[in-house]
């Protein structure tokens, strides 16, 4: 499956097993909308906090089973740069100022993760991993508005990861879509404020 969008996204994960795109029209300039990507509280809505808590509970359970350190607790607010701290599994893969931000995650289904340097992400192929790439991009829309687009792509590095991801994706997909919708709304609200 291939969907043509931003170049940075295509560099990181041009071929993928599953992908979703969501959009929102923002009644603000493209630059204001891009700035809001970095300044919006992505956990602004109670639903976003609840969904994040649920996903973190799964991560903590997986960590207990593996005997590894537990992931950090869910904060009451989070800006995109907060997601990129030293203890975060998310990597900043690309930032095209004014246009697109691309993040990456190496996920071991059902709960767990790997890490690598951002420059190694595109070629990362360790077995048992689902590579997740998430972009948030801004496109001009009309005279002074913006189209905010989020795209998520996943790719399983081997057959085992593909089977595990295939079992989990139907359960995860609706919640992931709802979470991305909440992120779009938070950025839109920040840009339009």
Protein described:
It is a single chain. It is globular and about 50 Å long. The chain has helices spanning 7-12, 30-39, 46-66, 159-192; strands at 18-26, 91-96, 100-107, 113-114, 130-141, 145-156. 37% of the residues lie in helices and 25% in strands. Strand 5 and strand 6 (145-156) form a beta hairpin. It is α+β, with helices and mostly antiparallel strands. It has one domain (7-65, 75-192): Alpha-D-Glucose-1,6-Bisphosphate, Chain A, domain 4, CATH 3.30.530. Strands 1, 2, 3, 4, 5 and 6 form a 6-stranded antiparallel β-sheet that branches.
Topology:
Layout: H1 7-12, E1 18-26, H2 30-39, H3 46-66, E2 91-96, E3 100-107, E4 113-114, E5 130-141, E6 145-156, H4 159-192
Antiparallel strand pairs: 1-6, 2-3, 3-4, 3-5, 5-6
Helix pairs in contact: 2-4, 3-4
Can you tag this structure with a few keywords?
193 residues, alpha+beta, six-stranded antiparallel beta sheet, 6 strands, globular, disordered N terminus
Per the CATH scheme, the topology name is Alpha-D-Glucose-1,6-Bisphosphate, Chain A, domain 4
Structural class: alpha+beta
**Helical content class:** 25-40%
Shape: globular
Give a summary of the structure in a few sentences:
The protein is an alpha+beta fold and 193 residues long. The chain is globular and about 50 Å long.
């Amino acid at each position: 499956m291939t969907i043509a969008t931003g170049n940075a996204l295509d560099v990181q994960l041009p071929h993928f097993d599953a992908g979703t795109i969501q959009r929102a029209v923002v009644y603000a300039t493209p630059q204001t909308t891009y700035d809001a990507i970095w300044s919006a509280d992505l956990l602004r809505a109670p639903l976003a906090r609840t969904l994040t808590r649920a996903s973190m509970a799964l991560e903590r359970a997986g960590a207990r089973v593996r005997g590894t350190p537990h992931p950090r607790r869910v904060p009451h607010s989070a800006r995109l740069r907060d997601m990129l701290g030293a203890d975060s599994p998310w990597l900043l893969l690309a930032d095209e100022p004014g246009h697109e931000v691309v993040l990456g995650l190496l996920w071991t289904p059902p709960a767990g993760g790997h890490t690598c340097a951002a420059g190694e992400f595109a070629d990362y192929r360790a077995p048992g991993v689902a590579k997740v790439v998430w972009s948030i991009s801004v496109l001009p829309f009309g005279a002074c508005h913006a189209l905010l687009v989020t795209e998520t792509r996943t790719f399983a590095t081997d057959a085992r990861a593909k089977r595990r991801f295939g079992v989990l994706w139907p359960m995860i997909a609706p919640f992931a879509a709802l979470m991305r919708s909440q992120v779009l709304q938070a950025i839109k609200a920040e840009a339009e404020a």
